[in-house]
Specification:
Order of helices and strands: HEHEEHEEHHHHHHHEHEHHEHHEE
Distance between the termini: 42 Å
Strand order of the largest sheet: 6-10-9-7-8
Number of strands: 10
Largest sheet: 5 strands, mixed
Number of helices: 15
Radius of gyration: 25 Å
Helix content: 40-55%
Oligomer: single chain
Number of domains: 3
Structural class: alpha+beta
Length: 414
């Protein structure tokens, strides 16, 4: 039997949130985001045996934990006149109609009494004009992936802050320190990308973005250059689209059971979003290459022998997070090696079919097996290697054409 959600209970919790907000002296209004985060905080703090916990079904999405049921209840309470709404430029403020201040939408039993006490404490501890602390806490402690805080709270706002500073400043300079800081933030986010094979296609596109941004940040143009600022602005716009696509995948991974029946449709939406990004990122990457030439850096071109030695040595020193070849050869030996040594690694074959060797697979292989695997997987496509030493960073390699073996690839890189 499927779970029945009691919207009267959610009404009561929303009413109490607004009452406690005013009682704490912070005003009588809350945004939908604040209400969503407050009730999710309540869900997090309720004991596992309290039935109210499952009456607040959430999934992780663009702004973190989100409940469709809370949104629908807010709409219903507004239609019924229980809530008054104030429209702002890009958000709505909800306020409790005083006529309903003392109305009980459900009777208070011991479970609700405990929830009420926890909710009051949560609301009283909210910052007067911001819920940034609560969002940061939820992202760091409860998000399905560290990519949430590191990309959304780390890289994205700092990138926008940098653009706002250089676009408004009257000083013409080349602040390489700020650019390197942004590159490091992006590298930290990259190291937090999900291992789940669901995100294999997303990651291939993401690497194009990371490589493009790295080139922009190392460009010799000064901060006031029009072309440079345009590329930074394009990077911001694309970061939002990348984030949206990622969030469509995140909810597939972390959601309450009541949403299980939506997984198939969610997967379809996620893959459509990733597909729609393909041409945009290809255009962005091409534009960056055209604008930033000539550069004093390129992808590192390396012979196959040197690349093999580099990877074997780095693996020994436990410096590699993953290697992404983008595509793999049609070789039974590749799968024989994986099946023999890393068959207990969840979805290892799926990762390999997407062109990726993660550290869990790499650590299972001896030097000879790793060398054979590399020689079977290299192609004329860029190879992305994520290193963990001295801070996470991803390096792009191209194997010298005259040292490449002749291989038949499965599929085409996105």
């Amino acid at each position: 039997m499927s779970l029945q959600i009691n919207d009267s209970l959610i009404k009561e919790l929303i009413k109490l949130s607004l009452k406690y907000r005013e009682k704490a002296g912070f005003g009588s209004k809350l945004t939908e985001t604040a209400i969503q985060k407050t009730l999710y905080e309540l869900k997090r703090n309720l004991p596992s045996d309290n039935p109210i916990k499952e009456q607040l079904p959430y999934y992780w999405f663009k702004a973190g934990a989100y409940s469709e049921f809370v949104t629908k209840t807010l709409e219903k309470m507004t239609q019924e006149g229980v809530l008054k709404i104030e429209e702002k430029n890009n958000y709505k403020l909800f306020e409790l109609n005083k006529d309903f201040e003392n109305k009980r939408f459900v009777e208070h039993d011991t479970n609700l009494e405990l929830a009420r006490q926890i909710l009051q404490r949560i609301v009283e501890n909210l910052q007067p004009f911001s819920i940034d602390h609560e969002i940061k806490s939820q992202y760091e402690e409860d998000a399905p992936f560290l990519f949430y805080p590191r990309f959304k709270l780390g890289f994205m706002p700092n990138l926008e802050g940098y653009y706002n500073a250089i676009s408004k400043s009257k000083v013409t300079n080349h602040n390489q320190t700020q650019r390197e800081c942004l590159s490091k933030l992006l590298n930290v986010a990259t190291a937090s990308l999900p291992m789940n094979s669901l995100f294999a296609g997303f990651k291939r596109l993401y690497f194009d973005y990371e490589t493009s941004f790295y080139r922009i940040s190392r460009w010799h143009k000064n901060d006031k250059d029009d072309d440079f600022q345009k590329l930074i602005k394009d990077s911001i716009n694309l970061s939002y689209e990348i984030w949206d696509a990622f969030a469509y995948g995140a909810r597939i991974v972390k959601h309450d059971p009541i949403y299980d029946e939506r997984i198939d449709s969610w997967k379809k939406i996620f893959f459509e979003n990733v597909s729609s990004l393909t041409s945009k990122l290809a255009e962005f990457y091409t534009n960056v290459l055209e604008k930033t030439k000539p550069l004093d850096f390129e992808e590192q071109v390396i012979s196959l022998e040197k690349f093999v030695n580099l990877i074997v040595k780095s693996r020994k020193q436990k410096q590699i997070t993953f290697i992404n070849f983008q595509s793999i050869p049609r070789s039974t030996n590749v799968f024989r090696i994986i099946d023999a040594k890393a068959k207990d690694v969840t979805e290892s074959e799926t990762f390999l079919r997407q062109g990726q060797l993660d550290w869990k697979v790499l650590q299972k292989l001896d030097d000879a097996e790793l060398e054979e695997l590399i020689r079977k997987c290299v192609s004329n496509q860029p190879i992305y290697v994520a290193y963990s030493d001295k801070g996470p960073t991803t390096v792009t390699y191209r194997i010298e054409l005259n040292s490449l073996p002749v291989v038949e690839q499965i599929g085409n890189p996105v």
